[in-house]
Backbone:
């Protein structure tokens, strides 16, 4: 119950309309939309800074090795963003709550993973 109270603080925070923060238990995911790479980088970095202030305030440890960014766009390369001076790794897919999402949103990686598990 304590975790829900602490988490509610960051979930109910005022975010820009193009920033969506989703949480389930101790897993968080940002979905951020911007028209250009430069705006995307600034918005992502601002969102992560706000999130980091919240984690610092509550003395929460963040597992940076689990951090991943994916770019679901036609941009050749996404912006490099940092958490506490450490560059967050980029990937073409990520796993969130057991679902593998890829940068093309065609679910091929998830279906392949499910096929492997089923066989």
Residues:
């Amino acid at each position: 119950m304590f975790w829900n109270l602490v988490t509610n603080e960051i979930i109910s925070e005022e975010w820009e309309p193009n920033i969506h923060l989703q949480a389930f238990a101790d897993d968080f995911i940002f979905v951020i939309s911007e028209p250009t790479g430069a705006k995307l980088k600034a918005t992502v970095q601002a969102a992560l800074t706000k999130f980091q202030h919240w984690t610092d305030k509550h003395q929460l440890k963040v597992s940076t090795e689990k951090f991943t960014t994916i770019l679901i766009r036609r941009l050749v390369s996404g912006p490099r963003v940092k958490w506490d001076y450490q560059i967050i790794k980029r990937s073409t897919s990520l796993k969130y709550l057991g679902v593998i999402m890829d940068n093309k949103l065609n679910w091929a990686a998830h279906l392949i993973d499910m096929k492997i598990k089923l066989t």
User: Anything to note?
Assistant: Strands lie at 19-24, 27-32, 82-83, 86-87, 93-96, 99-102.
